[in-house]
Amino acid sequence: SPDGYQDQATPSYTLRAREKISQPARRSEPIKENPKKRQEPATPKPPNSDSKKQRPAGLSVDELELACAVACGLDDLQPEEEEVAMLPPGADHGAYVKVRNHILTRWRADVRRYLSLEDAASRILGKFKPLVQHAWTFLSAYGFINFGVAPKLMREPERSSMHARTQKSIVIIGAGLAGAAAARQLVKWGYKVVLLEGRNRPGGRVWSMRMEGGDKIGLADLGGAIITGIDGNPLAVLARQLGVPMHEIRNRCPLYLEDGTEAPADLDAQVLEQHNALLDGADKFRDELPGDVADCISVGAALKMLWNEVPREPGREELQETLMRWHFANVEFANAAKLHSLSLRNWDQDDPYEMEGAHVFLPGGNGQLVGALLRDVPVFYGQVVSRIAHSREGVTVTTQDNTFKADACLVTVPLGVLKKDAIVFSPPLPEDKQQAITRLGYGVLNKLVLLFPHAFWDTTLDTIGHVSPDPDMPGLFFLFYCFPEHLAGGGAVLGVLVSGHAAERFESMPVPDAVARLMKVLRTIHEPMGITVPDPLNAVATRWASDPLSYGSYSSVAVGATGDDYEALARDVAGRLFFAGEATIAKWPATMHGAFISGLREAAKIKFAYDPPRRRPKRGKGREGSEQEDAAASPSSSSSEESGNDSEPDAGARSDTSDGEFAGSKRAGRSKRAGSVPPSSSTKGREGSGRRRAEASAESLAAVQAASRAAEALRALFSEHEPDVEFGCFSAIYGPPAAPGLLEEGKALVQVDFSGMRTGPRRNLAMYATLTRAQLSALRDVRGGDEARLAVMNRDLGIKLVGRGSGNGSEDASLTTLLRAVLAARKLTALLELLGPEAGVGGQAAAAKLASEMGAGAAEVLKAEADGSG
After folding, report:
1. Region 593-617: what's the mean pLDDT?
2. What is the pLDDT of residue 758?
3. How far apart are the first and last CA of the chain?
4. For 825, which of 169, 276, 472, 858 could close a Cys bridge (C-beta 3.0–4.6 Å)?
5. CA-based Rg of the chain, rounded to a whole angstrom?
6. Which segments of 490-641 does DSSP mark as H helices, in order?
7. Residue 746 pLDDT level (bands cut at 50, 70, 90)
């Protein structure tokens, strides 16, 4: 732009020693960073070291090996289903797990070496040595050992049983972490691999961009920036293999208000406690709801219902509301989704599997991990895939100017691309996979990154919180990532996150305008401290939702979706099409390490599909399907039209389960729902601070107030007036006959009262929707009671319930329009006055206007319809 700022940039990536490839880069997207909750300041720990550490005092060898297995996502007490399929009948599972954990721990002690089968067996007692082959094969195939970018791990020894015995060709679509991980494994094992990337750079949603300005150069992670939990995290293994130091993110993070002062420490701590109590209360609330009711309710509806019951601090109500909105923005950041779109039942289904340990930045950016993985891997850049066809003969992948044929194809494109049907599959994808693509959520997180001549901020901070004064956009510039010179490659880089509704609106905000608004925030915070904030040398804004190669940032569990949808998306098709990426892994979705692990998983599935272990493993049922279903997915199954030819391996030789889930079992872990490294609750506020100096914009406040008034009017309407139809927890009031340009014919206001459906203390929770009379009649006839009706309404009819201040503008507007029409037709002037003016017309004038548009007989028609005589 004329101002020198960028929507996209030209980064350089060091792929080989002394060799740089500079190429224009399209916009990419971040994969969810999942930092810690707000905590008290912690004592700094020494930098990460590659040197061997002493075993913790008081920890036995068995305990250490169990801890290592858990940290890596494995069940510490019993084998995974993939392992059981590889074990001989009657094998001692307990002994096998001990052998497996021992081998895993030995390699993790030195991740730069290749651990051969012979080395793995060297310390195992003779009677257990037969189990070593099975454990070593599983760990090697699924990327628990002998993976990565260390020189000794780049090629599998030909004598190894992991080396390919068949010359199968694999085409991989997408050069992000998932595609790069799979390519590295398959190339190492000796398969013929080609990788297609639509962008002109590697990394996909991991994008470390080179920024230049004046005589300064800095590196900024415009995509995923944080490795979340380094204990057992394979990305931390890659960093150690490359010798890249990991910078542990410090917990202290002050939270600044609009006037530049810090939030009062007492109220900050109080709201933090209230926020965590809301999350716990939402968990309890969903557990009290019967059946599938919680599947139909959003996190936003539950949190706001509970928040409305929390007493406000006298004299500081507005500030208390503002601080809580910051926490809500933080949750939206963690999920790249607005609160009203997240499933109350399943939004946090991956919490038990969270990686433990410190959260870190990588100096030089995460793109260096992808570059190292792709060393010596043939990559075709600028190849946007438009069609994928598969048959008994193999797969054919079509791009804008090339056609590629192979034995199998691994698809790692973002969920947003699949949602847009940007790739045509022939034959079409199975119905369960298409439904999973539709149900899963996929939202946006954006960043604005600035390069400065020097770090003017407190360099003891890694994060800084900022409370947006706009109640309609609490996620605007709400959290800063601070990269001083030693972390950003020479220049000082400051990145700020934009989440929720603000992230969507940020897509169309001109970069100079965004920079001007951000600089005002920075100067308001720092100049009262006597700090001069210099002008930025360069600025880059992301536009992930507009990027045709991502259409968003990362996945979430939307209302109506479950963790099973991740597994459905991971299942292969006819043994020819395989799928990887952050949206294909139920345990670690929306994370960089989840994407990487999914690539390792699919490499193992491809290997065992075309090059099974020499000993035919026992066939077992997967979590999702029967033996027959597993056989149908095999390349050699005769029951599938798209199965492989007679030379392909039998289905029984495949050791992967049909659900495609990465090996592991549930275990306790810290909740990550807070989503970021939020501000410390112990920060001190300035004297006299705690109130914002300016009110939020009139437009935003008006929208919030209108939503509140509409909720009051709806409650009054349904509590004071008889509904036209009532069944179960559903009540409906018919709308008036249609008026041109006003509303659709046959609509009804519907209230769903959940208070009678839950156990425990009764709490008023009514939610609303607009339905046609035909839909209402269909719901009344559904068998199975209210739970079945709610399931039909959500999954079959696609109706979303709206609560107080849902934040869903289009649905709120539709509801309010019909509500006005009902109140006007029934001449409920008092409720119209409560609802407030419409487009500058007062309540009484609005009633007269609506009555005039609908005709004088509207109220009589409604009464006749209610009586059944109309």
Report:
1. 87
2. 56
3. 64
4. 858
5. 29
6. 500-506, 511-526, 564-570, 592-610, 627-632
7. confident
Q: Are 387 and 397 in contact (CB under 8 A)?
A: yes
CA distance 727 to 771: 15
C-alpha separations of 293 from 224, 286, 328, 579, 752 in Å: 35, 8, 23, 31, 11
Residue 697 has pLDDT above 70, yes or no: no
From residue 501, give the alpha-carbon distance in Å to each of 18, 415, 709, 747.
43, 20, 21, 28
* CATH class of the domain at 212-348+445-506+508-542+678-696: alpha beta
**Which residues make Cβ contacts (< 8 Å) with residue 514, sequence separation at least 6?**
448, 506, 539, 541
Of 167-176, 246-255, 756-765, 806-815, the one with minimum mean pLDDT is 756-765
Q: Cβ contacts of residue 325 below 8 Å, gap of 6+?
A: 467, 468, 471, 474
pTM to 2 decimal places: 0.76
- Alpha carbon distance 252, 233 (integer Å): 24
Q: How far is it, in rounded angstroms, from Cα 230 to Cα 222? A: 21
* CA 172/CA 490 separation, integer angstroms: 35
Q: Taking each helix axis from N to C terminus, what angle separates 129-141 and 592-610, rounded to the nearest 10 degrees?
A: 120
Q: Given the structure tokens 């926490």, which residue do they identify?
A: 327
Q: CA-to-CA distance for 618 and 89, rounded, in angstroms?
A: 8
CB neighbour class for 867 (10 Å; exposed up to 12, middle 13-18, buried from 19): exposed
Enumerate the domain spans of the chain.
212-348+445-506+508-542+678-696, 698-867
pLDDT of 599 higher than 70: yes
